[in-house]
């Protein structure tokens, strides 16, 4: 995917993230550096392809923000329908994690104690344990 601005280097996945995924997926396999670079380029191109298609779908539906449904439709229209069930599972996991975070944050807010005070109390407790 060519870019007229020449900023393609700014639009890549961090190599450390790719290395971690490769290591987790294939823990007992050695992967050459040029193969890792190829994986980075493939991942970046895939993301560009899906994002562009999702953006077109979003625009056609007269929306301003790409939603998960736009991404799922993009996968289908580009022939990646076999990924959709797994994508939906991951989406549900992300929603669950986000909900848990919001609940945890609201619990802290409902205590009515400023975060600084809670940190101070925590430090006092740590100090008592250390004695």
From TrEMBL:
One of the record's GO cellular component terms: negative cofactor 2 complex
Limits of the Transcription factor CBF/NF-Y/archaeal histone domain: 12-75
InterPro entries: CBFA_NFYB_domain, Histone-fold, Ncb2
Protein's UniProt keywords contain Transport: no
Biological-process GO terms, alphabetical: negative regulation of transcription by RNA polymerase II; regulation of cell division; RNA polymerase II preinitiation complex assembly
GO molecular function: protein heterodimerization activity; RNA polymerase II general transcription initiation factor activity; TBP-class protein binding
Pfam families according to UniProt: CBFD_NFYB_HMF
Record localization: Nucleus
Keyword Lipid metabolism: no
CDD domains: HFD_Dr1
Keywords in alphabetical order: Nucleus
Main location: nucleus
UniProt record similarity statement: Belongs to the NC2 beta/DR1 family.
Protein name: Protein Dr1
Lineage, top ranks: Eukaryota, Metazoa, Chordata, Craniata, Vertebrata
